[in-house]
Specification:
Elements: H1 3-20, H2 39-42, E1 49-62, E2 65-72, E3 75-82, H3 88-93, E4 102-111, E5 117-128, H4 144-149, H5 151-157, H6 159-181, E6 185-186, E7 192-193, E8 205-208, E9 213-217, H7 222-230, E10 235-243, E11 255-264, H8 268-286, E12 291-294, E13 297-300, E14 307-309, H9 310-318, H10 327-336, H11 347-358, E15 367-373, E16 382-383, E17 386-397, E18 400-407, H12 412-424, H13 438-445, E19 451-457, H14 458-466
Length: 484
Amino acid sequence: MSTIDELIRSRRQKLEELEKKGINPFPARIELSGERIRIEKARELSGKKVLVSGRLWSIREHGTMIFADLKDESGKIQVLFLKKILSDNKFESVSLLDTGDFFACYGKIFETKAGEITVEVEDWQILAKSLRPLPSEHFGLKDVEERFRKRYLDLLLNPEVRKRFDIRSKLVTGVRQYLDGLGYFEVETPTLQVLYGGANAKPFKTHLNALNIDVFLRIADELYLKRLIAGGYERVYEICKDFRNEGVDQTHNPEFTMIEFYQAYSDYYGIMDVAENMLRYLAKIIFEKTLIKVGDYEVDIGKPWPKIRMVDAIEDKLGLKVAEETEKSLVDYCKKNKIELVGGETKGQLIFTIFEHLITDSLIQPVWIIDYPKDVSPLSKNKPGESDWVERFEGYIGGKEIFDGWSELTDPREQRQRFESDKRAVRKDKEEAQQVDEDFLEAMEYGMPPIGGIGIGIDRLTMFFTNTWNIRELIIFPTMRPKE
């Protein structure tokens, strides 16, 4: 029998011994006298009697006295079992406790000669028997796959992991506070959609038995949020799960969280201002400063961000005037620089591909890249007088894309043509194309005001604020292949 099996067997034997003694190892509540307080607060109450609870972290026997460490969410404290204070049954039963057990105790706070703040236990209660031993705190839980599969252990043994998820929670709260303060309304739109849209992505498909129809898990909530603008809302946002049936890599997961917000009577400049100020607001909540480390760089998001046209960014970096090039010359340039192509790309798609492959990594200090090819932006409004370009932007910091938004297209005639054109566009997977959404087009025909909008990945935002560039580190239960 393996060591782990022996340890599990020992714990199950202790469980049986507890039950023989009439001790319930899984009670519904704490039955000790007093009101439970957090360990963090208890540590400040020297000479007072307290009731604390948490998980036993270590147990050290010294004859007629037994020491243990007790942890809750707020901190750790030492507890002391003395034979002269506890009844014989209570003291003897301490030997049936294990590290990992949930436990409560009542007693006086004092400081040992060694300076250790301690609870002198007068009474105790087991709250849940741990039937499996926790991994060694010294060796920890190091295997990455195992950490993701057993996040509950990862959180217990790796404090930096818990810290990252605490920051994520603060970010979501901060986003809501910021947008609510600007008069935005938080809304909810369908997760199951008859037709997917709002992004170029391959959807998940399922069947709705009650209506006997096929439906899709949403890939974005954009088209529903803009329906609400048509319905009279002027500022709306949604924080929701999106699902895209695509690959898994360092920055992409099939299930992820997005915040999208839309503002009537605004454009992409207005939305850039809102997003830029939101990032500063969040930085002050998390760090109390605007100087942030991204990768190996320090960036200051407190200064105004420059706005640079995509064509200018390419020319400055590569010396290539893409607007003056032909499709053939751009294809040749891609081949020369070993940029993989599907074949049949339009000029706009080629320009965007060159930008993504050769420019983005160099965008270290905060910058807005603006004015994108129309061919890759089917929901964006045209640049006045520039038929091949649209009012779209992306925000880059530390070589990472953080924001993506645009002045929204509001002409239903142009939108229909864009939908149809996008379905014909060259791409590896045709399912990634925007669909012709007749219901959305009808909503547009009733009239939409000028709109600015943006989509921001909450996971990506957390990666930015924790400088952790693996998305599965920031999704508390990431999608994993099942073990055989």
